[in-house]
Structure to design on (369 residues):
């Protein structure tokens, strides 16, 4: 039987910017710019400023092993709304961990699964806060989001690694999001559980793509949860930016091809499109640079090691390379279109000069020049 808490994160990317000063008129939360000062973390590490507020509702979890439902909403200035749900579990069998996501809660609005309740709260808040959000220049057909679940076990273990080894056949597929009854090969089990992190002898954390396990009988893992949320924040922003670039590249290619092939008002339409490409090209550059510098977690201290590991799990490097490649293509489209515009103008000038010289020659022959 296990004791501890489950922490659900779900983050939504709603736009380029949230005006934290103005939105406090409808969202009376607490301005929060945490500085992490635990686990040998240097003083210069500062987490992005947010506004946070506890969601006060009378909510009952429909399970005898789950209780104390707590919910928090957090707004990031960089256009992200984050929900954190925390639920204590008491005497919960390990083999029931994978079914917690299907747990229902009784709320003033009805009975919901946790994921559906978060979506409802987000929809309600997003509808109220639209005037304070600077949306992306090309609205997405749906709002991107990321989910991550932390299972924090607070029982005392003499050796957490021994417990993990004894239960590896359940824990490995569970972390992977697979059916726990799946008979995984030992290589896959080892690969899933190999990258564990510990700061003290009694704590250990193992991370996968959508969930993690944290063993800490002292409950000293708040800084770890903050790093996990920040890593998911960056994963969401990178994925959204990559998708936006895809949309704009497809649109730019189609529009410019249409202008070249069909348009009679070639220069006017091309000028308009070049102005648009120029603007979004620099918008993307500033968004990407700001994202990469949102938090300077650099070094070899414990939390930086975890952040780097999550970056590998979430493929930060590949996402960044994809974004840089798309930005390069966007730049090439702009440069090529601009050069073509110049070439076209030169052709028009040459034609005009040819007409002028021809008229002068005709007038000369007629003795009128």
């Amino acid at each position: 039987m296990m004791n501890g808490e489950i922490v659900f994160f779900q983050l939504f990317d709603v736009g380029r910017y949230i005006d934290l000063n103005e939105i406090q008129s409808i969202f009376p939360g607490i301005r929060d710019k945490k500085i992490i000062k635990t686990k040998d973390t240097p003083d210069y590490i500062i987490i992005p400023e947010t506004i946070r507020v506890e969601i006060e509702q009378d909510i009952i979890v429909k399970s005898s092993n789950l209780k104390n439902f707590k919910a928090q909403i957090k707004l990031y200035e960089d256009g992200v709304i984050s929900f954190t749900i925390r639920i204590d579990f008491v005497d919960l069998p390990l083999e029931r961990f994978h079914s917690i996501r299907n747990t229902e809660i009784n709320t003033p609005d009805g009975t919901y699964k946790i994921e559906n309740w978060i979506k409802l709260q987000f929809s309600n808040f997003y509808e109220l806060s639209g005037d304070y959000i600077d949306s992306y220049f090309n609205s997405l057909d749906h709002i991107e989001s990321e989910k991550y679940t932390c299972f924090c076990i607070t029982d005392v273990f003499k050796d957490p690694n021994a417990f993990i080894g004894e239960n590896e056949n359940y824990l490995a597929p569970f972390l992977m999001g697979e059916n726990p009854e799946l008979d995984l090969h030992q290589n896959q089990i080892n690969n899933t559980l190999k990258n564990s992190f510990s700061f003290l002898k009694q704590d250990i954390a193992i991370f996968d793509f959508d969930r993690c396990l944290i063993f800490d009988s002292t409950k000293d893992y708040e800084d770890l949860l903050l790093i996990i949320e920040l890593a998911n924040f960056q994963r969401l922003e990178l994925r959204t930016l990559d998708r936006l670039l895809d949309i704009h590249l497809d649109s730019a290619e189609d529009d410019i091809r249409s202008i070249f092939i069909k348009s009679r008002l070639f220069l006017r339409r091309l000028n308009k499109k070049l102005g648009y490409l120029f603007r979004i090209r620099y918008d993307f550059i500033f968004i990407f640079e700001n994202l990469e510098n949102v938090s300077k977690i650099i070094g070899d201290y414990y939390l930086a090691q975890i952040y780097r590991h999550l970056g590998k799990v979430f493929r930060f490097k590949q996402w960044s390379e994809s974004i840089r490649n798309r930005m390069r293509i966007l730049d090439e489209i702009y440069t090529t279109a601009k050069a073509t515009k110049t070439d076209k103008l030169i052709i028009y000038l040459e034609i005009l000069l040819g007409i002028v010289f021809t008229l002068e020659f005709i007038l000369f022959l007629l003795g009128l020049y």
